[in-house]
Amino acid sequence: MKLEGKNLTFQYDKGERKILNHLHIVLESGERLGMAAPSGFGKTTCCKILSGYEQPDEGEVLLDGRPLSAYKGYCPVQMIWQHPELAVNPKLRMKEILKEGDRLEGRIIRELGIEEGWMRRYPGELSGGELQRFCIARALGERTKFLLADEITAMLDLITQSQIWNFLLKETSDRGIGLLVVSHSEELLKRLATRRVEWE
Amino acid sequence: MEKAKDILTAEHFSVSFMQRKGLWGMQKLPVIQDLSLKVREGEMVAVVGASGSGKSILAHGIMGLLPENACVGGKLFFRGREITAKTLKELRGHRMVLVPQSVSYLDPLMRVGEQVRNGKKDIISRRRGRETLERYGLGEETERLYPFELSGGMTRRILISTAVMENAELVIADEPTPGLHLEAAKRVLSHFREIADAGAGVLLITHDLSLALETVDRIVVFYAGTAVEEAGAGDFSKEESLRHPYTKALYRAMPEHGFLTVSGSQPFVTELPRGCFYGPRCAYFSEECKGTIPYRGFQEGMVRCLKAGQFRAKGEDVHETGRKKSDVSV
């Protein structure tokens, strides 16, 4: 499959701040695209548009040649956010939060190191690294074809970072999921990316 | 060479919170336990730990800013004098300052210039305020802005300015870099380095070990609410010079050093294992690790591990697989 952002343009504040300017981006199944750029260049906005959370002012997002908005039901393009504590409903228990995603294999929960006891807790009772594991599981439902990872381990310690990425490397290559890796860490991108985009 | 003077000393410092459990019960949450560290003149010390490990509580604990349900134990000294509720009043905000984590610590309805001057309006304060902002590349026009008009990088520089204005002897920086891209983050840390080079002590609290290594003198590794190792920044150049199995595992998890993992995660404060907190994940765990583990001096640093120095050299090192939770006796 092929996820394509064509001619994407986006601005905030009624044109005062141009974020994306005629951006072209292509992500193929099974590849890992690395993206690095200074803050304020619109990396997060780009992820939001590619996963359908935001509409571009100009341009379109195509999945296998069809507009992303034409896919009804579960969106095959899923995004994982930098701050997991802001991406979960604080009033739901973790097991309810997992149900917000698609059908999920129990294997994924085990391989992510999610412990049974965490399921009954509320988000405020888990650390950032533990919460992020849930957010990743939630995004890895059966029908996920592309995964957009926006600085997903920037807030975590090095061991948790390597646990999460080692899992994602295996999972995405086993399932042929296309992965977009946004990170400011050159060393991390060197490890992960099969191809790089440079921002101008 | 004359030994640099200690500015901040923490001895067996601990913080716990009382939390309601069920209808009648109360539960004690030990967030920080038996923490000892020193910050000397001209020195920048980083406390590095994962998110949720209680690092911010440490900063607030030292500054005396904890909420009422917190119990504090151990002792804190400022230049050899114990910090008490009384001395805290003259220290806090003058000789000892906190650079908080985010923009939410600024007054949203007060212009930035005024906040940097701490509300003072005299000519000397005005001039100092302007000079301080200039030092961080912020022009005169910045003074008239409100906090919501600042970018992430500008906010950090304003927060640092408020601290520098007082010529403090101790600066505590709580996570000053998240949300900044690499160049900006490095610049922020270099500002703290300048403060230390001018003679003050800087305590940097961060989760970003790789970034801290470039600027600080010493690193205190924080795990499950306590210090497991204190090392010189140079010790991180190779695995053998590190003392604790957790620090070694951190080293090996760096993308440039193999990207290896250890299974498991940091225990939640209510589920701390007996004895060594890292025990359930440690390949060297044995019966004797179930007792109290002292924090002791070791090879010019500190370590909380009975077996430091007994590990085999790299190469014949067993791969750390860790144990399952079920193996831990509670």
What does the model show?
- The complex is a heterodimer of chains A (200) and B (330).
- Chain A contains six helices and nine strands.
- By secondary structure, chain A is α/β, with parallel strands linked by helices.
- In chain A, the strands form two sheets. In chain A, strands 6-7-8-3-9 form a five-stranded parallel beta sheet, sandwiched between helices. A four-stranded antiparallel beta sheet of chain A has the order 2-1-4-5, covered by helices on one side.
- The mean pLDDT of chain A is 91.
- Chain B is an alpha/beta fold and 330 residues long.
- Chain B has a domain of 92 residues.
- Chain B is built from eight helices and twelve strands.
- In chain B, the strands form two sheets. An eight-stranded mixed beta sheet of chain B has the order 6-7-8-3-9-10-12-11, with helices on both faces. A four-stranded antiparallel beta sheet of chain B has the order 2-1-4-5, with helices on one face.
- In chain B, a hairpin with a 3-residue loop joins β1 and β2.
- The chains are: A alpha/beta (200), B alpha/beta (330).
- The interface between A and B is medium-sized, with 31 and 34 residues.
